[in-house]
Amino acid sequence: MTQEELFKKLIAHCKEYGFIFPSSEIYDGLSAVYDYGQLGAELKNNIKKYWWESMILLNDNIVGIDAAIFMHPRTWEASGHVGAFNDPLIDNKDSKKRYRADVLIEDHIQKIEGKIKKETEKAEKKFGDSFDKEKFVATNTRVIEYQKEIDVIKARFVAALDKSDLDEVRQIIIDNEIVCPVSGTRNWTEVRQFNLMFETKMGSVSEDANTIYLRPETAQGIFVNFLNVQKSGRMKIPFGIAQIGKAFRNEIVARQFIFRMREFEQMEMQFFVRPGSELEWFEKWREKRLRWHLAMGINNDKYRFHKHDKLAHYANAAYDIEFKFPFGFKEVEGIHSRTDFDLSSHAKFSGKKITYFDTELNQSYTPYVVETSVGVDRMVLLILSNGYTEEKVKKDDGEGEDTRIVLNIPPALAPVKLAVLPLIRKEGMPEKAEKIIQDLKFEFNCQYDEKDSIGRRYRRQDAIGTPYCITIDHQTMQDDTVTIRHRDTMKQERMPISGLTEFLQKRVSIKSMLLNI
Ligand code: GAP
């Protein structure tokens, strides 16, 4: 199965099992807007809980807030979003498709990187154990040529963006013979800037109404509250403010399911530090955030860092944490050293003094900021695309093969933690199952299922990622033990009902993941 096929299947699976639906689907949907169904909402909430607790419970110098989506419009002038939150867009005249010019160029660079990878893998196969990758990359003429090509494109691209030279951005596309993925032609329009903020009006009388924006990032709600939180919480630098909330961007190219949405959710943390210490903190947070991802038990090979060549107007260092989605390595989280840009700019635009008096240094300064920013929806996609697996297994009757679809979701994030299945609908088994659920439901999301054969019920739970199923059978009625079936191995073991709480606490609680960070 190709990655493209897998991705299509995943999207269909998400709808079939109640994870994600197109928004307002009965009206044919709304482009790049999605609704979370009954299981998607559980998964999303678990991800948010994992992030929130990792920030707030594990760090005694980080506190959380919940700022409004609507903010004073001057906020977005100060932050630079009114002037500079633009994407360069280009249209192909034949396919009439619109693209982000920077994405076309980045995709082209990725293709060349793919060629380097191919050459290296070929050589690795040929030379086996004696293969020295570093030496090969530094000396192989073909690889050197490819790398030179990448360096030239990157240098031109960074210079063009720095000067906001959109003609040059177009010229890079032309010179590198980049074609439209749909029409295959190079019939491009000019490159234009497009502001991504959604506008609306506040006020009941239209002439008096003010234009306000739906926030394009949650971070500004933290910056404008810096003094409120610092003073009311008596916070001492270094300290952080965390927040989870909706953000809105009028994305030009809304693609890849919930990867790029127009309404999405962010989990952001701004860490305020002494000027001059920001790059040290930046490195600490870079490592810490990767550990958060890996503590979910996902393979290290699926992650990589990407250093920004072109820095945003507010940053002096930036890395993305990228994940290998079915459509390639893409950003899931950004870690940015934002300098004192935001606080200084809000001080200037508001006319208020926004500084911190450092009692140890006996001096006032504008704090510098290290930001970590991860998308909730991208995390949902990461978990689902990493977990979706089709396996060949023996049929229940032992005759021939069957396909088992299983979502290998980290157990602590799974929407349903335990399925409770009476073997038959009589002899007191349903009542026993009900009693177990009554005892466990305060801590764990449990699901009761009595319909169809046990094998079919297991498959249903596999398809939604339930890590454990217990079966109430004849023996249960005699000795209060149940069989517990493991999603990943399909192995079964017998255990007393009285041991279930401890068994689950160790394996499916958010704490079990927090301990691994
Ligand atoms: N405050 C910094 C900031 O917003 P960003 O790199 O633009 O930085 C941070 O966004 C994260 O938000 C991204 O890594 C991604 O996970 C998520 N994100 C951004 N735009 C998104 C979109 N259109 N749809 C879904 N998630 C998005």
What does this structure look like?
By secondary structure, the chain is of the alpha+beta class. It folds into two domains: 3-384, Bira Bifunctional Protein, Domain 2 (BirA Bifunctional Protein, domain 2, 2-Layer Sandwich), CATH 3.30.930; 411-514, 3-Layer(aba) Sandwich (Rossmann fold), CATH 3.40.50. The protein is 39% helix and 25% strand. The mean pLDDT is 94. The site of glycyl-adenosine-5'-phosphate has 19 residues, from strand 10, strand 13, strand 16 and helix 13.
Any idea what the radius of gyration is? 26 Å
Q: How many domains, in number, for the residues?
A: 2
Task: Report helical residue fraction.
Answer: 25-40%
Structural class: alpha+beta
Bound molecules: glycyl-adenosine-5'-phosphate
Query: Which strand order does the major sheet show?
Result: 3-9-10-16-13-12-11
Based on the coordinates given, report the CATH architecture of the largest domain: 2-Layer Sandwich
User: For this structure, what is the CATH class of the largest domain?
Assistant: Alpha Beta
Round the mean pLDDT to the nearest integer and report it: 94
The CATH H-level superfamily of the largest domain is: Bira Bifunctional Protein, Domain 2
- Strand fraction equals 25-35%
Q: For the terminal residues, how far apart are their CA atoms?
A: 34 Å
How would you sum up the major sheet? 7 strands, mixed
The count of strands amounts to 23
Low-confidence stretches: none
